[in-house]
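Record type: monomer structure entry
Structure origin: computed from sequence
Chain ID: A
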Amino acid sequence: MLNLIGYASIFIPAAILVRYLKKIKYNERAGSGPVSSIIKLCVFGLEQIKPSLEEGSSAANTPPQEKTVWQMTVTLIICFIGLQVSFLTWGVLQERIMKYDYGATDTQSGEKFRNSQFLVFINRILAFILSSSVVIFTRQPRHTAPLYKYSYCSFSNIMSSWFQYEALKFVSFPAQVLGKACKIIPVMLMGKVVSRKSYHYYEYVTAAMISLGVSLFLLSRGEGNKQWSTATSFSGVILMVGYMLFDSFTSNWQGALFTTHKMSSVQMMMGVNLFSVLFTSVSLVEQGTMFSSLEFMFKYPQFMYHALLLSLCSATGQLFIYYCISQFGAVTFTIIMTIRQGLAILLSCIIYHHSVAQVGLLGILVVFTALFARIYFGKKSKSAKTNLKGLVKTEQSQSLLGNGKA
């Protein structure tokens, strides 16, 4: 709750200021000084400035070449593998950091690092530095989005994490599994709200099948565990709903920004991490835990090394996240991350020779059936659209010829 108060101390005053500046139309009356330029960049962006002929009129008039099916397939496979490797490694490193006794010897017990928010701060600041360096030293598309728009998905990402961690205290294992596995449908529904997207019936059916399959597989792994709680309180349900709402908003809002402003995935990464660093740093300072965490870091160099590795995995994972959303959308990204949960357990079963129950095998079969069905019907739908466009063009050309003869 203290974290939430810290975030609100930035978010609420900033929201009031942005609304006021828009109300008085500050961009129309402001001068050309550095302060005015920064304010306009943060609140209004560069949407009103159009590229000149010197900036590449030929490039502007030439539509980007669409990728072939084979190129999109290879890109999707690379995103899938990159996300799996980055976040599986990140999860292992995070668990090691939170459970490792730093400074332990044969005669003296060590200390555990408890402040997970400081780890988030370290992850975000390294990701911001890396993405900023890429933006500065490489050619990027013209950035037109107001910077404050990145704060929405940054804040919703932080809030989804908070709801997720709090929900674990009040919900049972089956409820946790169902909540995480069924995120695809809330993401699709949020897409209709945020971006006014429409989905085919087969997309809803396959999303439900993937959620069912992953749930069956994950629940089959918990059947033998006698220790997980079976009680789910009403508070836990509310927290899980909050987690799914904020999580589905995050990826859809990022997808909407990509569609509207055409920024690169690295520009998106820089903007989101800018506000994540701001939110977490202010919250840490207000709680008085920033300096104690820094003291722990310099006291134990091994912790600094572990935190650096964790941050590199997080930054790499973010690159794949934003690129995946920019190329394939929020729903495809959510499907990949949902399958990741089952894949992590499946790999554990293979490595440690654990058996998979029949219900788990059924779940795997349902997931792969849904994926193949989604690919098949998606290809069929695109083919139908292409044929329809060709038919319309043919009719238009025939109509023009007929008018010419007349």
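Annotation 1: Residues 48-61, 226-230 have pLDDT under 50 and may be disordered.
Annotation 2: The CA atoms of residues 199 and 382 lie 13 Å apart.
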